[in-house]
Design a protein that fits this description.
- There is one protein chain.
- With 247 residues, this protein is mainly alpha-helical.
- The protein has two domains: 1-95, no CATH class; 114-247, Alpha Horseshoe (Leucine-rich Repeat Variant), CATH 1.25.10.90.
- It is built from 14 helices and no strands.
Length: 247
């Protein structure tokens, strides 16, 4: 990708590295699990870079969005792509839901790591809350996709974090998507499944508890841990006993 805005973004990102005082992981690229080029900035440093802004910030929002979409699709740089997500977060509530969705729903093929996946899930969850008739059919399609990151999106985007949502889909539109992927072999789909069960429990505690009672023997160890994170010790023990008896 050759353009002046990207050159500016890369220059600013690299310039921020010597002043990044947040201790990180020894191998952040391995921790994130990405094949994209990695400059090495921490999330706080990235947020400060975005806050400081760029010379093209004065352009109309739609023109900026097209630029950041190009950065996401073509830059091949993990931090630059993360800035694209920051831009979406900043403008999501000020931009027409249809417009934001029409741009961002095409971003999933570029995902190769959990951090970018979760960033998009937060955006999709917000859009779903505000226009479920538009977003939910795509989640249904992703639920059976060959792309594991799209399958993960079909789950985590349903709620992401319950505390951030003012309203939820009916539970009978949430649990079936989880059930279809109980046996999924991809690690990050399973982690997303556990996350979604935890958040579904926050939104629909009784219904999700009954779901866990029925399906806990099918849950992978990867999914079981986050799915039961918010349960009380007695509930966790009950589910553990169910799993033992099912072996």
């Amino acid at each position: 990708m050759k353009n002046e805005p990207l050159a500016e973004i890369v220059t600013v990102l690299k310039a921020a590295l010597p002043t990044d005082k947040v201790s990180g992981f020894k191998d952040p690229k391995k921790y994130i699990g990405t094949e994209y080029d990695f400059i090495g900035l921490s999330v706080p440093a990235l947020r400060q870079v975005f806050k400081n802004g760029f010379s093209f910030d004065s352009n109309p929002v739609e023109k900026q969005f097209k630029l950041w979409e190009k950065v996401w699709r073509q830059s091949g740089i993990y931090e630059a792509m993360t800035l694209s997500l920051f831009f979406c977060d900043k403008h999501a509530k000020k931009t027409d839901v249809d417009l934001m969705w029409n741009y961002s729903k095409k971003w999933t093929p570029q995902i190769d790591n959990w951090a970018h996946s979760d960033g998009l899930s937060g955006l999709y969850s917000y859009l779903l809350e505000n226009n479920p008739e538009l977003i939910y059919p795509q989640l249904l399609k992703w639920n059976t996709s060959k792309n594991p990151w799209e399958r993960r999106q079909s789950l985590v985007s349903l709620i992401e974090y319950a505390k951030k949502r003012k309203s939820f889909l009916p539970v009978d539109k949430i649990h079936p998507l989880i059930e279809k992927l109980l046996s999924d072999k991809h690690c990050f789909v399973q982690k997303g499944l556990g996350w979604t069960l935890r958040e579904a429990g926050n939104a629909y505690p009784k219904e999700t508890w009954n779901f866990l009672l029925k399906h806990t023997p099918k849950l992978s160890a990867v999914a079981f841990s986050p799915a039961t994170e918010k349960l009380n010790p007695q509930q966790k023990e009950q589910l553990k006993q169910l799993r033992k008896r099912a072996k």
